[in-house]
Amino acid sequence: MVPTGLVPAVLFHGEDNGDGGISTSRSLVWESDAILYALDEQFPDTPRLMMKENNEFATALEMQERLQLAGVRFAYGGRNQTLADNEKMKLRNDFETALDELNTALGEQQQRIVDDGNTASAGCFRLGTEFSGVDAMLIPTLERWRYQLPVTENLDILRDRIHLRQWFNHLDSFLPYSERVAGDEYSWTATASQFLRYFGGGEDKPEVAAAIERADSTAKKLANEFSSSYNINTKQ
Predict the structure, then answer these.
(1) What value, to the nearest 5°, has the Cα angle with vertex 133 and ends 15 and 9?
(2) DSSP letters spanning 77-141
(3) Is the CA virtual torsion 199, 203, 204, 210 positive or negative?
(4) pLDDT of residue 57
(5) How far apart are CA 26 and CA 98, in angstroms?
(6) Residue 152, helix vs strand vs coil
(7) pLDDT by residue (tens digit) across 118-154?
């Protein structure tokens, strides 16, 4: 529906006109935040995802945008052969700083929940006890980075970031995510080599070729583990 194919898109169909006829109106919306705003408008009786009038939401959204930008610059800009080593290191440091900022914010959010007297849990959503549009925009790339970056860039986004890890664990208990749309380690790892082939800057570059090999090797190892587990379970 979008010629570039690089953004999510939703086609909303108009409602029935009330006299037995079918509406032919259509509305195409693309980009993640615009889709979430449109979903709130189309389904007003469901919990709102986007709260642009809320200052805390606006601050969290700005932080999410900084993290996304820093992550994209690190993941793709770092493969730019015209960059010096110190420039590539700055991209990495900027990304890790943005991850630390999110981790700190999640810790502060969790502490507020405890201070308010609510039952302490292992984590929380980005803005507290309720899932919001910020969580919806964070999870796709954070999920991908969680599984792909240790293989492609030797960077574990959860290392020393306990609150970010707890956020992932909390999402695992949120059934609309965990039982419907959550990705998994194998799928993201298996696609990592394809991301590198398309956007890595060329397999002729030794570091790109090495990262592709690591991704393919790790995916194969995971697949073999699945196979072994299946064989054991079927024998039992």
Answers:
(1) 50
(2) ITT-TTS-HHHHHHHHHHHHHHHHHHHHHHHHHHHHHHHTTPPP-S--BTTBSS--HHHHHHHHH
(3) positive
(4) 95
(5) 39
(6) helix
(7) 665 657 899 999 999 999 999 999 999 999 999 999 9
